[in-house]
Amino acid sequence: MTLPDGPMSAAAIAAAIRGRKLTAARVAEHALVLIEARNAALNAYTAVLAGRALAEAHAVDAAIADGSDPGALAGVPYGVKCLFDVAGLSTRAGSIINRDLPPARQDAVLVRRMAQHGAVLLGTQTMDEYAYGFTTENVHDGTTRNPHDSLRVAGGSSGGSAASVAAGLGAVALASDTNGSIRVPASFCGVFGLKPTYGRLPRTGAFPFVFDLDHVGPLARTTEDLALVYDALQGPDPQDPACAGRAIEPALPHLGHSPTTLRIGVLDGWFHDKADAQARAAVRHIADALGASTHVSLPGAEAARAAAFLITAAQGANLHLANLRARARDFDPAIRDRLLAGTLLPAAFLLQAQRVRRWFSEEAAEVFRSFDILLAPSTPCSATRIGQDTLELDGICYPARPNIGLLTQPLSCIGLPIVSVPVFLAGALPIGVQIIAAPWRETLALQVCAHLERIGAVGAAQVA
Prior knowledge:
Helix content is 38%, strand content 16%. It contains 16 helices and 17 strands. The strands form four sheets. It has an eleven-stranded mixed sheet with strand order 1-3-2-8-10-9-16-17-13-11-12, sandwiched between helices. Strands 4-5 form a two-stranded antiparallel sheet. The protein has a two-stranded antiparallel sheet with strand order 6-7. The protein is globular and about 60 Å long. The two termini are 22 Å apart. The relative contact order is 0.13.
């Protein structure tokens, strides 16, 4: 079997390798050639680990030759956002400061789990400094460009990860989402992204940003690939208190069952008013495909977003306080100023933000008594131009970089499981729609996504 001109899904790669139609080494070599040819234009990877990738690929081939099963991700090439520990590399997290850290002694837990299932690590990927941004315009590592339009951003903070998947420079990627950092770049780059329930997947070995809000999850070109990786990553980890006792609930075996009699609501209010015409049209497209016509309010979304801002600023500032004092000039100026502002927040503000967060969680739980799935845009617009300063939404002009996540922040603030699905409307750049489920119901959200993909309502486009 020869490799096709376009990207193969992770599921197809693993099946071909396990069936001895392809070798993992051949797949890895091909991926490395594509990265060599295309990464300079995209700036998706910060480090390419050719030696490690080929060694892992040969180990997969050796296991198959010995009659062993290398795992469900046999030979699948992937990358990781550069905040995941990779043995032998300093965990840069998009910064200059972290380059002075000693190399990681071992891989992050999720990277180890990928290896245990036979996946092949290609390298680390570009991000906003310390994950505090939505565009991956990084003053240290450069801007990651959108594979669909090189004059536009890839979204952030996991921009390199989403761009690599969209461009075929790896079948899947691991990323993080604190305020929208999986869903925003998934929307801009036209791929699928899963932000699981808070605490579902362990963050051990991922450089932190905001303990109360940090999530980790996969990006992929198909729902099946998203579920395949998600299942491989599941399992408790005592080193992450949020994930210490979480049981495994596989999603992949359920994707073939189209959910029926679902109660689906289209979020209005904040989620309608702060979206442009294209974002609203994308939600209508998904709602029509699902036969959903009921609109529902989620009270307090704006307040929850404000709470997320305060919690982010305060916890992020606390994490970086020593370096803000000693090495302030080494931060990206835009990020430094937000962190410095976080150091000045009164304790009363943070306490009130946590109260709002708990209240909003209760409001969402009440809505989920009547609905199984909620729909909302992933971003207020499609990919913005590199260097764009402002957005105009609902007649108000906003600073662009901090406000691209205004539709994702309220939902990650309360840890809901969400899949961003890619919608391609005629003549337009891709844009994502959030498929939102109640806590711990990732499988239901993925079932809905798989159904939408089967009927042709969503799907990642091939980037030349």
